Amino acid sequence: MLTNPAARYRSFAPVQISERAWPDRQLTSPPVWLSTDLRDGNQALAQPMSIAQKQRLFKLLVDIGFKEIEVGFPSASQTEFDFVRQLIEQDLIPDDVTIQVLTQSRESLIRRTFEAVKGAKQAIVHIYNATAPHFRRIVFNKTQAETVELATAAAQLIKDLADAQPETDWRFQYSPEVFTSTELAFAKEICDAVVEIWQPPAGLAVADRKAIINLPASVEVSLPNVFADQVEWMHRHLKWRDRITLSVHNHNDRGTATAAAELGQLAGADRVEGCLFGNGERTGNVDLVTLAMNFYTQGIHPGLDFSEMDAIADVVKDCTQLPIHPRHPYVGELVHTAFSGSHQDAIRKGFAVQDPNGIWEVPYLPMDPADIGRSYEAVVRVNSQSGKGGMAFLLERDYGLALPRGLQIEFGQAVQQAMDAHSSQDQATEMSSAKLWQLFRQTYGIETTVKQQYLRHRLEPMEEEAARTGAESQHIQVWLQDSGETYSLEGTGNGPIAAFIDALALPIHVIAFEERSLTRGEGAEAIAYVQLQETTSGQIQYGVGIHHNIVTASLLAVLSAIHRLNQNGELTLEIPLLNGDSVTGQTAIAT
C-alpha cells in the first residue's frame, strides 16, 4: 500500500445542494423492485447459467413476488437470446410480470433485442451508454455532444421499433452508465434529451408507462450520503420528473450499497434494481434480500415473500454455484446464532417472556427466525465461549428442563470442563443439545449405576403424631440394593424428603428443592432438583431425579446429590438388613 494514497487517488467532491430533504424523510413503503439476477447477476458468474438454470431461477423470482425481472442481454449470446424466446413462446411469463431486456445503444444490438422480445405481452427495453468523463475520454473517445447523440439515436430507434410492434405493451428505460462519476449537469442533460424523445404521457402511476431513468452506481465511489445528494439533485432537476420512474442500481465496491440504496429512496428514487444475496459484478449489486428484510423488520411488508428463505437460498446457490456467507444478513447459517454466554442468557430470557402475538422484543434477535422459515434449533449453540444461559436454553428447549439458577451455574462448570478437555485434545469444541443432555445425565447419575440403587418405597401418614403435634408427619421405608443385597431404611419427617433424610442419618440438610413436570399427557415424567449441603465440610451439590412418580423422582434426586457430595468426601450409611437384622457398614454412595 502507498504511504501517500492521495498521490494516486482522488477523494470524491461533495454535491452542492441546499436544504437537502432526504435526511428528514422516512421510508414508509417499499420501492418497485427489479431483479437483475438473470442479467447482471448472470454475467458476473465464472460459469454463466444454462437455460434450464435460468428458467428455474426465473420461476423462483416470480414465486417470491417480483413484478419486474431483467431476464437477460439477448444480443450478447445465443443462449441469452434463446432463453428470452423460450419464456415468451412457452408462455412462462405471468400476466402481471414484466420482463426487462438490456442492450447497448448500438443499432444492430437494439434490433436483435427486439427480435428476442417479439410477442411478449409487456416488456421494458433498457438502453445505456457510459457518460462519465474518464469513460468518454479513455474508452470511447467521445465528446459530451457525441455521447448525447449516441443516447438519443438509440432512444429514437427503440421508440420506432416499439411502434412497429403494437401488440406488446412497451416501456423504455435509460441508464447513464457510471452515473456516480458523471457530472450532474451532464447526467441531467442526457436524461432529459432521451425522455424528450419518448414523450411519456402525464398523469400515470409509478408502475404504469412512465419512462424509467435508472441512476446506476456502476462503480461505488463515494459515501452513501453523497449518492443520496446526487439522487436528490436529479430528482429536483429532471425536466420530465412527473412522467419518470426514478430508479437506482447500486454496486457494492465500498461495501455500502445497502445504505446507498436506502438513502437513494429517501432522496426520491421510486425503484431499486439489484440481485438476491448481492450477486453481481466485482463486489456485487445491492442485496435485495437485505433491503427487503430491512423493511420487514421495521414493520413494513416489502411486497416480496421470503418466508422460505433456506429453500430460496438453495435454489440461488445451485443456479449460480456461489456460496452464501454464514454471516450474511438474515440468511446466513449463523446470523441467528449466539455462542457468547451473555448473548445466550439474554436470548433465553427474551424467549421466556415473548408474547407470541406481541411486538418482537427478544434481545440480540432483530427478527423472529420463524418468519423466514427458520427453526429455533440454531439460535443458541454452545462452545467454549458460552455460559450457563446457552446451556440452559438448549436443555429447556429440547428436553423440557427448566434448571434452577444454582444448578445452571453448577452444571455450567461441568460443561466448561468438558469443553476445555476437548479443546486440549484439539477436538471440536461445539456441544449440541444431545451431547449436553448426555453430559447432564452422566453428571447427575440419571439412569446410571450408583452403589446404592433405589428399588421402591412405602410412604404412610403418621396420624397419631400429627394429632399430637399438630404438624403433618410421614413415615417412609425405602428399599435399596447394594452389591446384590437388598436393604431397607426407615425414617420420619414432615414430608417424603425430610423422612428420607432422617432415614439416611447422614450429616446433610436440604438447601433447596424444586419439582416440575418434564413431559405432558399420560405417563408424563416429573423431574426433581434437590440441593444438599454436607454440614461437616459445607460442601453443596445438586442432585436430579426423573420418574413418573414425583416422590420417587425426589428420592432419586437426593441419592444423586449424595453421590456427588461423596465424590469429594466420605459419607456413610447405617443400613438395617431387610430381614430385620442390623449391620453397620462403611458404605459410601459411589459409582
Give structural notes.
This protein has three domains: 29-320, Aldolase class I (TIM Barrel, Alpha-Beta Barrel), CATH 3.20.20.70; 341-443, no CATH class; 453-566, Alpha-isopropylmalate synthase LeuA, regulatory domain (Double Stranded RNA Binding Domain, 2-Layer Sandwich). It is of the alpha/beta class and 591 residues long. Helix 3 (78-89) links the parallel strand 2 (68-72) and strand 3 (98-104). The strands form three sheets. An eight-stranded parallel beta barrel has the order 1-2-3-4-5-6-7-8, surrounded by eight helices. Strands 9-10-11 form a three-stranded antiparallel β-sheet. The protein has helices at residues 37-43, 51-64, 78-89, 107-116, 133-140, 144-163, 184-198, 224-237, 257-266, 288-296, 309-320, 341-353, 388-399, 405-424, 433-443, 463-469, 496-504, 550-566, and strands at residues 32-35, 68-72, 98-104, 122-130, 169-177, 211-217, 244-250, 271-274, 453-461, 474-482, 485-493, 508-517, 526-534, 540-547. Helix 4 runs parallel beside helix 6 (144-163). Mean pLDDT is 88; it is low at 574-591.
Query: How would you sum up the global shape?
Result: elongated
Helix content: 25-40%
Task: Please give the count of helices.
Answer: 18
The mean pLDDT is 88
Q: State the end-to-end distance.
A: 65 Å
The count of strands amounts to 14
Instruction: Note the main sheet.
Output: 8 strands, parallel, barrel
Helix/strand/pairing category: alpha/beta
What is the CATH third-level topology name of the largest domain? TIM Barrel
- What's the name of the CATH homologous superfamily of the largest domain? Aldolase class I
Q: Class of the largest domain in CATH?
A: Alpha Beta
